[in-house]
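Objective 1b. Sequence-to-structure analysis of 3-dehydroquinate dehydratase.
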Amino acid sequence: MKILVIDGPNMNMLGIREVNIYGSENYETLLKLLDEVALEENIDIIHFQSNYEGAIVDEIQKAYQKVDGIVINPAAYTHTSVAILDALKSVSIPTVEVHISKVSEREDFRQINFIKPYAIKSFEGFGIDGYKRAIIYLKNYLKGKK
């Protein structure tokens, strides 16, 4: 089973930016967690991070017929990117959304979420552990479809 994990803008700044919201665990800790989950769950995890919307769209398109599922933290693009939503729709790959913070309880402008209605599940407010939850959920979902 192959899962693509996509992180949007500023995720590479974990542990540096707004520690009161995103926690003190850094980006390298997140990548290490993904490696551990891949090993524990016997999943091939491909990770991609970009601060550029078009690069994320390109990565989603490249995943067509190459991965079984996508876990995405679109970060700020959650609230602005119809292009990322359209890319996800175009490849029809089961997608789980994840957010480190509880975005549904944050600023008004963050209440717009273009990805959530498309995603099969959304995890928010669990810190980086939300990625593990999202991957395991997606793995079980995909196994159930076979």
